[in-house]
Amino acid sequence: MQLLDRLYELDQKQQRNRSIIEIWILKSRIFQVQNNNLPNALAAFEDVLKLAKSEGFVRSFVDEGEDIKSLLNAAMSKNIEPDYVRQLLNAFKTQDTQSIVTVDQKELIEPLSEREIEILEFIAQGLTNQQIADKLFL
Known about the structure:
Layout: H1 2-13, H2 17-33, H3 38-55, H4 59-62, H5 66-77, H6 82-98, H7 114-124, H8 129-135
């Protein structure tokens, strides 16, 4: 963390926002993993979301992979930058579905219901069973 703080100070002086965003994402992940400190992780993540939103960054989050999704979902549940977080989660969804082979519902023995499709979309977003149940009020 001390090294990240020093890098942050240097990047801030040189106004390198991309590096600043990457540092704050990393700090958020460290807080999340270290002692499972979600409040500190979200506090740091809120700062990075505000800066990244103003700069229009998306790829920096998507490149972090699945690990960052849990922070994005936690930020969404705390109503932190909800429109931007939704955009970021959709970017993950778009990336995920690009590699999925689509099946025409007509080819299925029994077509999927709207509810089943909705659940599959939540699974594709990386939500846990409990998060899906909460969203569906189960």
